[in-house]
Amino acid sequence: MATEIRVPTLGESVTEATIAQWFKKPGDAINVDEPIVELETDKVTVEVPAPVSGTLQEILVKEGDTVEVGALLGQISEGAGGAKTAPAAKAEAAPAASAKSAETVDVVVPSAGESVTEAEVGEWMVKVGDMVKADDILVELETDKAAQEIPAPAAGKIVEIAVKTGTTVHPGELLCRIAAGEGAAAATAAPAKAPSAAKGDGGMPPAPSAAKMMAESGISAAQVEGTGKRGQVLKGDVMAAISGGATQQTSAPAPAVTVRAPSAPSDEVREERVRMTKLRQTIARRLKDAQNTAAMLTTYNEVDMGPVMELRKQYKDLFEKKHNVKLGFMGFFTKAVCHALKEIPAVNAEIDGTDIIYKNYCHVGVAVGTDKGLVVPVVRDADQMSIAEIEKKIAEFGRKARDGKLGLDEMQGGTFTISNGGVYGSLMSSPILNAPQSGILGMHKIQERPMVVNGQIVARPMMYLALSYDHRIVDGKEAVTFLVRVKESLEDIQRLVLDL
What we know:
Distance between the termini: 69 Å
Function: E2 component of the 2-oxoglutarate dehydrogenase (OGDH) complex which catalyzes the second step in the conversion of 2-oxoglutarate to succinyl-CoA and CO(2).
Strand content: 25-35%
Keywords: Acyltransferase, Lipoyl, Transferase, Tricarboxylic acid cycle
Number of domains: 3
Organism: Stappia albiluteola
Family: Belongs to the 2-oxoacid dehydrogenase family.
GO molecular function: dihydrolipoyllysine-residue succinyltransferase activity
């Protein structure tokens, strides 16, 4: 009697999944509730357990295939599967040592989202022969939207690395193979080998530029405190260590290096060539496409930040105590933008061929700078949220961006973007549109300037605002009116409270 294995219900809004990995192959004995296959959706990863004990009779879909909820994945022949061991013919054909580690686990490129069809292989954290534990990070993949760490699905020994750093791969392609069994026991008993002797405390090897500078300076990774992701040593860390007094090691002689000594240092020696990440390539392409496609224009204004600053000063402690999040400026700006978008809907629209799509909702993107590049997570339905809810969501995005944990679904679907260059000290700039959106607001540094108020010259905390817009869909009058509405909401903060 055969029992069907089908895709389970994965959630109210999830209709399909990708086959990430089969844990069993046809002919394998399985026990009831033992994981058989791993499915990946755009929100979660799900293991499908065996509904009965028996033998896996048939696999109907391959790893990397996309299937709908309820689709047939395979079949189990019911019987004494749990007690069944490997077939005798296989046991005789392999030596005893091989029988312990006969199972080889393929690590493949996971599906990264509906709009992501390829990724670039980043730095490998392991090499062939290394022992790894389950969930140890093997390699980092870079897509055009984010970086994704690939963990080991099982403990064992790395027996093959199928692709090199810099290779472009697609979902379902083989990355490496792990021999489980004998290697699993060894990996559990002892930590995995470091792929390099110069790793930071967090297990990440130094960045190439940092490794080169350490070699030239004669200092070790132990003398440098890494500030990168998971303790990775960056070039700036090495420079800081050198300026802080780190000296060349004397415990062992430095390896002999043949160095040409020209009379004057050549430019080539002082240059550094690094591979552009997939994310950086995409940022460059999208920004240039926006310039080439949209009739982009920028209008400027300035806002007196005094009322907002006074409100923050008065209520920031009470606000943080009640909502467990700090009261920043982004909540006020996001609410002010939502008010203005409702009045000037063209700034919240986009062009699709010869059509204009007006969005009757406000999904506001908030630009966040990371060591990998610029990402823009989206606060969905910001117009329906309170300032406290907006601040919590932005704080959550900030933490995820720093840790590289932002999901692709969290960076899609924005209708308008806010970019805050003021956190870096920018006094004025012209932001570039985040296509296909028609508007982006640039915030800048708050600086006291002499202003005339009621006939008197007084120092006021002023901020320049910049609205870049697509002149194909937004007229100058609409753009100026939009920016004036943002200014009025912030200078008369009661307008936000009273929804005026």
